[in-house]
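Study this fold:
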Amino acid sequence: MKYHQINSNLFIKNRRKFTAEMKPNSVAVFNSNDIYPISADSTLPFAQHRDIFYLSGVDQEESILLLFPDAPYESQKEMLFLKETSEHIAIWEGEKLTKERAFQVSGIRTVYWLQDFHKVLNEIMTYADTMYINTNEHYRAAVETETREARFVKWWKEKYPAHNVAKSNPILQRIRSVKESEEIDLIQHACDITEKGFRRLLSFVKPNVTEYEIEAELAHEFIRNRSKGFAYTPIIASGNNANVLHYIENNQQCKAGDLILLDVAAEYANYSSDMTRTIPVSGRFSDRQKAVYNAVLRVKKEATKMLTPGTLWKQYHVEVGKIMTSELLGLGLIDKADVQNENPDWPAYKKYFMHGTSHHMGLDTHDYGLLHEPMKSNMVFTVEPGIYIPAEKFGIRLEDNVVVQEKGEPFNLMRNIPVEVDEIETLMNS
């Protein structure tokens, strides 16, 4: 891994939080992700399942974590099962975790090779009454591929039909959404790498540069700072491309006078950052562009203040909609009649701001968090309002990552990334 090793105390704390919520005499199993094939002998780069990483720190394929807090023997309370390493594997693939190294990473003393899993599990299931299975219940999930986790669940239900079944996901949704201080530091580090990439761009962007050249500059800066690269597929949308919310082609030339919407950010140690900035290709905003930009910035600032403990996500978005409505009226994009006659299910402001303002962020860019429950301190959210005007061939979105505080306004993890018009113009023309 490119990142520095994370102290195993984080994963020990995470496991304690999870097992504290388990039913008596129950077992939980978590599987790594597969390495996905492309064609012939080609594969996609491995990306670890965030749940097993969150609970163990193991960042390796073909790994299993088993938790059994009420086990009759101390050695059975926490167990890791890993792909057995060998000299051959070390030569062809690089070294895998040894049992001792796995303990250093995870804090788990009982480590088996993977071939022992079924034998050990069979003994464990004679003691246990309930199995926690790990299903993906994220509100944005749309999974068509059968995962390693899903295959395990199918196999386990056939093998052990007499046991009770419980779900890991509701526990994970709650505990993963509230970050430990170590996690906030890792997200901050990802944001700091993102800042370096963005500042690099401000002196690089000129008329006629291509979107993919900008992408290459960012990738260079991210990777040289120990990131694997982008936390998500980058959006580098110049001109009217910014009005396609998930534009990812990044293959057009950036023309003088246009704006570039950059929804780009680095990951670090599997933790995401999530930034959006909008900059002028020529280094100066026009008066109209500046007016719309500052309207979006005002919405972002007011929306940020609302992210406090006890706030409900759904009501928060209603209040942000009111602020955006006022700004759109001021810009002349909607009028009072539009507001008076609006459909409550699709308010007038949605014509120009059609997506949500905030989502949980952490190990996943769209991280775990139960949206019907009140916000808590140490949750991390994005704040990302935008105004999109196809008729004027530009769109503007601004996005920061903030930590909800026990009292007062959230702490902005992207406070050092330029966002004010004057600062961006100064840096682009220095």
Q: What stands out?
A: The longest helix spans residues 181-202.
